[in-house]
Design brief:
Blueprint lengths: L5 E5 L3 H12 L4 E5 L2 H10 L4 E5 L7 H11 L4 E6 L4 H9 L4 E4 L5 H19 L9 H7 L7 H14 L5 E4 L6 H10 L8 E5 L5 H9 L16 H4 L4 E5 L6 H13 L1 E2 L8 E2 L3 E6 L3 H6 L5 H7 L2 E4 L10 H16 L4 E2 L1 H9 L5 H15 L4 E2 L6 H10 L20 H10 L2 H4 L3 H24 L10 H15 L4 H8 L3 H11 L5
Parallel strand pairs: 1-2, 1-3, 3-4, 4-5, 6-11, 6-12, 7-8, 8-11, 13-14
Antiparallel strand pairs: 9-10
Helix pairs in contact: 2-3, 6-8, 7-8, 14-16, 15-17, 21-22, 22-23
């Protein structure tokens, strides 16, 4: 911890405030105490705090309101929520609103409190000082193949999931089919204290009703026809680990009752058995249906829903994170390369087509398309012709041959000019480029590459020598520089995308004097 910084403690219990004052002042911190929401707001208005510890329940307000007030006025201050066990759901909501973490009362481990405050301070410093670097969950995500990407919604989801992973609470994952719910569940398990134990996935909608109970709880020898031996169920196999219940909305009513009993008592009985079996399992459930609606329609038990829905994480569909498609595509090509011993690159034209598609099947559909394209590609470059016709057709419907504009069908400010005059003005002025939005700039890039190809072809027709091709060194420098910039300086990901080893990339960076920003 860095002494001398201001820490705010908001709690209506005088003893709690006195405890934190003694604990933190001994370490050199300046501690301010507030016993009501009004006192806390006045302190927030007058003193800059590095960390605030906020009790959820106060006599004149609640901790969530104070958290929002703090974040609105001091966004760089990290908040730690103090909560009783019965308000865990609210504490998790606080994390979703921007709290750094939460800790449960009564405080049993002072070291845990000190470590949490220290982590909050460190995180705040890294954020305030804008020190770029790998997020804490980066290694865990890479280990399980969870490609978070650059979309703010996904980064926020991964950050929340990483914090939740360390708590021994159930998680419900919502998302469309193919968005990667099981990968997110594996990420949560890998970041939890149970990571060395089993992660057991089961699809509740893929098993016949008469086998699901046996799969979950096991069966005794002779309990039904074909049961020639005692068999452990999923709950026994996953003991002390994590159980992933995919498509939980497809579980039949009788299984829902039995699941509820296990969650309430930590015990179950094998099919045909009489003796209860204890099991300590963390449940991570997933669904692509609206469980609240299923509860209203009496298709899903309300009490089971609230047992599972302690923390809810929403996975966005791929159409809402299209900027992550290049990173996902390169990851899938690398995986294919591990089997096929070759890693083709994706041409800009093909990548733009992939980014333009709406992806109703989400990441699962993207995986299939990439695998198909790699299989069809005979060279070292995936071209639009290697993509299915329906994918190319969706792109051609989106793009026209007319120049991209912000309004109408002409480049802004260049109406009525010849092609050469238009191109000359475009190279001299940047104003038109600044007027392009996210969609139009992609169209503009696509069209400029087509123009370049057509001009080179015309030069060949006229027997005019084209520009001197760049040297191998120039190509390597530009490619490495652009790849590093694309992946924000991440050496591991850049090397994987380039199809070379990390040591080779480091050597080339040093050899060419490339600046890593």
């Amino acid at each position: 911890m860095a002494p001398g910084e201001n820490i705010l403690v908001i709690d209506d219990e005088v003893e709690v405030g006195s405890f934190f004052r003694r604990l933190l002042q001994r370490k050199g911190f300046k501690v301010s105490l507030a016993h009501t929401g009004g006192e806390a707001m006045r302190l927030i208005d007058t003193i800059n705090f590095a960390v605030a510890l906020i009790d959820l329940k106060l006599p004149d307000t609640n901790g969530l309101i104070l958290l929002q007030y703090l974040k609105n006025n001091q966004p760089d201050c990290e908040a730690i929520i103090m909560t009783g066990y019965s308000t865990t759901r609210t504490a998790v909501k606080a994390i979703q609103l921007g709290a750094f973490d939460y800790i449960e009362k009564p405080f049993e481990d002072i070291t845990e409190i000190e470590d949490l405050i220290c982590k909050a301070l460190d995180y705040g410093h890294r954020t305030t000082d804008k020190i770029s670097g790998r997020p804490e969950w980066g290694t865990t995500a890479e280990k399980v193949g969870f490609i978070v990407g650059k979309t703010p919604k996904m980064i926020r989801l991964a950050t929340i999931a990483d914090k939740i992973a360390k708590k021994n609470i159930n998680v419900l994952i919502r998302g469309e089919t193919g968005t990667g719910k099981e990968i997110l569940a594996r990420f949560i398990h890998a970041g939890s204290p149970r990571h060395q134990q089993a992660f057991v996935p089961i699809n509740c909608g893929a098993l016949p009703e008469n086998l699901l109970e046996s799969e979950l709880f096991g069966h005794e020898k002779g309990s039904f026809t074909g049961a020639s031996y005692m068999r452990r169920g999923i709950f026994e196999i996953a003991n002390n680990g994590s159980l992933f219940l995919d498509e939980i909305g497809e579980a039949n009513p009788s299984i829902q009752v039995k699941l509820l009993r296990v969650l309430e008592t930590g015990e179950f009985v094998r099919v045909g058995g009489e003796k209860p079996v204890k099991s300590d399992v963390r449940i991570i459930a997933a669904t692509n249906v609206n469980l609240e609606k299923a509860v209203r329609e009496k298709l899903f038990r309300e009490d089971l829903f609230y047992r599972l829905d302690v923390v809810r994480l929403e996975l966005p569909p791929l159409r809402e994170r299209k900027e992550d498609i290049p990173m996902l595509v390169n990851h899938f090509i690398t995986n294919f390369n591990a089997k096929a011993h070759r890693a083709p690159q994706v041409s800009p034209e093909a990548m733009l087509i992939l980014q333009d598609h709406n992806w109703p099947g989400n990441i699962r559909e993207l995986v299939n398309i990439v695998d198909q394209a790699v299989a069809l590609c005979d060279g070292n470059m995936i071209l639009p012709t290697h993509l299915p016709e329906r994918i190319r057709q969706s792109a051609s419907n989106s793009y026209t041959t007319a120049p991209p504009t912000t309004t109408g069908n002409r480049w802004p400010g260049l109406e009525g000019q010849s092609i050469l005059e238009t191109l000359e003005k475009m190279t001299q002025e940047n104003g038109w480029a600044q007027k392009l939005n996210k969609d139009n700039v992609i169209r503009a890039y696509r069209l400029t590459t087509q123009i370049k190809d057509k001009l080179l072809n015309r030069m060949q027709e006229l027997s005019i020598p084209g520009p001197l091709p760049p040297s191998l060194e120039e190509v390597e420098v530009e490619t490495i520089t652009r790849t590093l910039a694309y992946y924000d300086g991440n050496i591991t990901t850049a090397a994987r995308s380039l199809g070379i080893g990390r040591n080779t990339l480091y050597r080339k960076i040093k050899e060419y004097g490339i600046d890593i920003k």
